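Aim 2 progress update. The chain analyzed this quarter is reproduced below.
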Amino acid sequence: MSIRSISRQGASSRVINNTRVSNPRNPWTTNILEYLVIGGGGGGGSFIGGGGGAGGMQTGTMLFTNGPAYPISIGGGGGGGGSTGATGYTGYTGATGSTGSTGYTGYTGYTGDTGDTGYTGDTGDTGYTGATGYTGQQGVIGVTGTYYSDYLFWNTYTNAWGIGQTEVHIGSNAGYTGQSSNSIAIGNLAGQNSQSVSSVAIGTAAGQNSQQTRSVAIGDGAGNDTQGQQSVAIGYQAGQYTQLDNSVAIGFSAGQTGQHSSSVAIGNSVARYDQQAESVAIGYFAGDSSQQTRSVAIGSGAGQNNQQAESVAIGYHAGVSSQQSSSVAIGNSAGRTGQQSSSVAIGYQAGETNQQSNSVAIGTQAGQTGQQSSCIAIGELVS
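Predicted C-alpha cells:
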C-alpha cells in the first residue's frame, strides 16, 4: 500500500510509507489520507516460467486523527510455481465409428475438344507372298489340231469349236463365208464374204465383200467391196469400192471409188473418183476426180479435176482443172485452168489460163493468159 498524501485541517503533516502516521505537535488533529493500493504480483513458474503480473489496484481517501496507530499490511507477491508433475499414460484409442454413406456422384463435366491427330506412323514391311495355289485341271474342248500352230475358233455353223489351218480368220465374222485357202482376214468383218485365194484383208471391214485373188487390203474399209485381182489398197477407205485388177491405192481415201485397172493413186484424197486405167496420181488431191486413161498428175492439186487422157500435169496446181488430152503442164500453176489439147506450158504460171491447142509457153508467166492456138511464147512474161 502506498499513501500518496495527507492533508491536515489546521496543521502541517508528513507522509510516512508503510508505518503509522502521527502528528507530534497535535496528535488528535483530524487528517485526510489519500491512498493507492496495488496487489502483489503472481509467482513465477518453477523452472522456466516468468514472474506474475501486478495485482489489483485500489485508490481512495479516508479520515483519520492523530494519536492512535493505524496498522498497514502489505501483502507479499505470489509464490513461485511448483514442479510440473509427470505426464499421465495416454488412454486407449476408442473404436472407429462406422463409415458414413457415400455421397451422390457429381455430374460428369463436358468432354473437352478432341486433340489433333498425331502423325501416321511408318508403314510396316510387306509380308511375304503366300505360296501359289495348285493349277486347276485343264478343261475339255473336245477337238485337236493336225499341224503345228493350228488354231482354235468358234464355228457358228456348228455351234462348236473348230480348228483353222490353211486360212486365217481372227475377229468377229472375219472370213465368215467362202474364205479360200491361204487367205488372211483379221479384224471385225474383214474378208467376211467370198475372200479369194491368197488374199489379205486386215482392218475393220477390209476386203469385206468379193476380195479377189492375191489382192491386199489394209486399213478400215480398204478394198471393202469388189477389190480386183492383185490390187493393193492401203489406208483408211483406200480402194474402197470397185478397185479393179492390178491397181494401187495408198493413202487416206486414195482411189476410193471406181479406180480402174493398172492405175496408181498415192497420197491423201488422191484420185478418189473414177480414176481410169493406167493413170497415175501422186500428191494431195492429185487427179482427184475423173482422171482419164494414161494421164499423169504429180503434185498437190495437179490434174485435180477432169484431166483428160494421156495428159501430164506436174507441180503444185499444175493442170488443176480441165486439162485436155495430150497436153503438158509442168511447174507451179502451169496450165492451171482450161489448157487445151496438145499444148505445152513449162514454168511458173506458164499458160496458166485458157492456153489453146497446139501452143507452147516456156518461162515464168509465159503465155500466162489466153495464149492462142499454135502459138509459141518463150521467156519471162512473153505472151
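The mean pLDDT is 84. The radius of gyration is 73 Å. These observations will guide the mutagenesis experiments scheduled for the next reporting period.
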